[in-house]
């Protein structure tokens, strides 16, 4: 297993790919040539994607990187092949029977699927690092640990919708997949040595199965506005909602990140005012930014809509939820549940340390908190196991946790 390295400044920098970067694939002919080379390669395919988070409204991929032993590295511009992903499906079909190596798959899978690329099998190098107990699992850190080289990440937050893409950005993008095949092999060896290869197999299969599962639309997405906790009235919540929706409409139309139109903290600050008007709006610094001020009439109209609502039309301060309340409130609300929470938390910490991995990867915190808050009638190991099945816990997770959690429930009081 690799050895963690704390001092990285003295490590050699991985500054350029081993091979010259091919031209960006942006035409049907270039794509056809890429497919031929990929099919003639061997082994799994490293896949990465670059988005334009913080710049664009869309979460689409603006560059897709692929690397395969014997084929080389390819940088594909998905924007050159339409918005629906149909024209890129031949690329997915060329590698669909192979294992895809992705770092932090949950981040990249949605935009890959949108581009028509759906993995059937994958190996997540970040998740592998977590299962192995590495304290830091960023790609750059794992490269340092396993190869003794430093991977610069200066363009990770760049606007990848920029065209043409600068040469140093393309160099950076190619390096993101340069060592993924070899990193995958080294992590796989360590997983086997640690007896965790079956755990990884189940985790990766679960990720692949969920690749095309669209999450249910979030109810009231405007409630995720940063700083909304300072808004203490339904009238204030209505202001947050109307401003958020006005901003979202503008951002969607312009394909710009909402925060570049109007910052969350400005919305929340204005919503704390009693019946705010144009003058109140102008007193909030966030509304005086140049990109925000040009839409002042939209913000004023949103305030007017919010203030025209009847009491019955105002949104509630909080939505009803079947999730357990925050654990900090349990001691007063339900002392018995709190005792179960403390017992289960201790068991999870012990098991995580014993198996050398983060507790959240051993079992999702939401799963065992639900178990503590409202345990099943059957609190035996079999009953807890059945409960965890309903929480989508994988087999390996239940094998480790079900019996100890059942014992903790029995001895909590």
From TrEMBL:
CDD domains: RNaseD_exo. It holds the Pfam family DNA_pol_A_exoN. Residues 233-313 form the HRDC domain. Residues 313-332 are annotated as: Disordered. Gene3D superfamilies: HRDC domain, Ribonuclease H-like superfamily/Ribonuclease H. SMART domains: 35EXOc, HRDC. This is HRDC domain-containing protein.
